[in-house]
Design brief:
Number of helices: 6
CATH topology: Nonspecific Lipid-transfer Protein, Chain A
CATH architecture: 2-Layer Sandwich
Structural class: alpha+beta
Shape: globular
Oligomer: single chain
Strand order of the largest sheet: 3-2-1-4-5
Strand content: 25-35%
Order of helices and strands: HHEEEEHHEHH
Length: 107
């Protein structure tokens, strides 16, 4: 089974490969994932600090959910809208940035 850590490692590579595209978002996301494979990750899309790290820094948009539902969301087993409406996904901060998350995790 895929773990959140593996997903964030792949995301780090994607961000490096498309740094010009992602740095235009110019924001910091925090993912707080609960469960045995959980943790807190920062996805920093600011030009000078671009990257993914396990950290608990401040962010403009925070995503809070279980590690299991996060994996389902990223792999397409769970739709973001459904997760949000059923309380499996909680968002805090800038909702405009939350909308851009699909671009970040999309293929």
């Amino acid at each position: 089974m895929t773990t959140p850590k593996e997903i964030f490692e792949k995301l780090q590579k994607k961000i490096v490969e498309k740094s010009d595209e992602f740095s235009q978002i110019a924001a910091v996301y925090k993912f707080v994932l609960n469960g045995p494979n959980g943790g807190t990750w920062i996805v920093d899309l600011r030009k000078d600090t671009l990257g993914v790290r396990e950290d608990n820094s401040e962010a403009k948009c925070t995503v809070n959910m279980s590690d299991e539902n996060f994996v389902k969301l990223v792999t397409g087993e769970l739709k973001a809208e459904t997760a949000f409406m059923t309380g499996k996904l909680k968002l805090y901060g800038d909702m405009g940035l939350a909308i851009k998350l699909g671009k970040l995790f999309g293929k």
